UniProtKB/TrEMBL annotation:
The chain crosses the membrane at residues 6-29, 41-68, 74-91, 98-118, 124-150. This is QueT transporter family protein. Keywords: Membrane, Transmembrane, Transmembrane helix. It comes from Diplocloster agilis.
Length: 161
């Protein structure tokens, strides 16, 4: 039982760390009204381990804090990632649907952060489109590529005790 908890925490911490690094390294592309956040490709990881749910949430939270985001972005942006991660976990048996929850969560939440937090005065539907394009590219395309690459080695990478 103890080893299972340690493994869960370790996997979550590793996922959080990778999310933070990818968010910060690619920060020039990951913030603003057109977002191409490479770290969002990791939102497919709940398909492999439930530890990805807290890992992605904490990773997004820390990434937003370290990137200098405003408080509403830190809170609600991280909440969007948490909602997406839970949705991905719930759809884990339908691999082609796994990227959809984070895409929709971000399309529905991030434009309001941009409008009311950052005072970007573009129309909300337009920002839904721009955020959606970035999410489809990162979660949908890169996420599915990552999913198929990891699937072959899932028993070695995402061991269970």
């Amino acid at each position: 039982m103890k080893n299972k908890k340690v493994l869960f925490i370790t996997q979550a911490a590793m996922i959080a760390a990778v999310y933070v690094v990818l968010t910060l390294v690619f920060a020039p592309f990951g913030f603003g009204q057109v977002q191409f956040r490479i770290s969002e490709a990791l939102t497919i990881l709940p398909m492999f381990t439930p530890a990805a749910i807290p890992g992605l949430f904490v990773g997004c939270l820390l990434g937003n804090i370290l990137a200098g985001s405003i408080l509403p972005d830190i809170l609600f942006g991280s909440l969007a990632t948490l909602i997406g991660a839970v949705g991905s976990y719930l759809l884990r048996k339908h691999r082609y649907l796994v990227p959809l929850p984070p895409i929709f969560a971000n399309i529905l939440i991030v434009p309001f952060i941009l409008r009311y937090g950052y005072q970007i005065l573009l129309p909300i539907p337009f920002m839904m489109l721009t955020v959606g394009i970035g999410e489809v590219a990162c979660c949908g395309i890169l996420g599915l590529i990552l999913m198929f690459a990891l699937n072959k080695y899932k028993h070695q990478i995402f061991k269970t005790v």
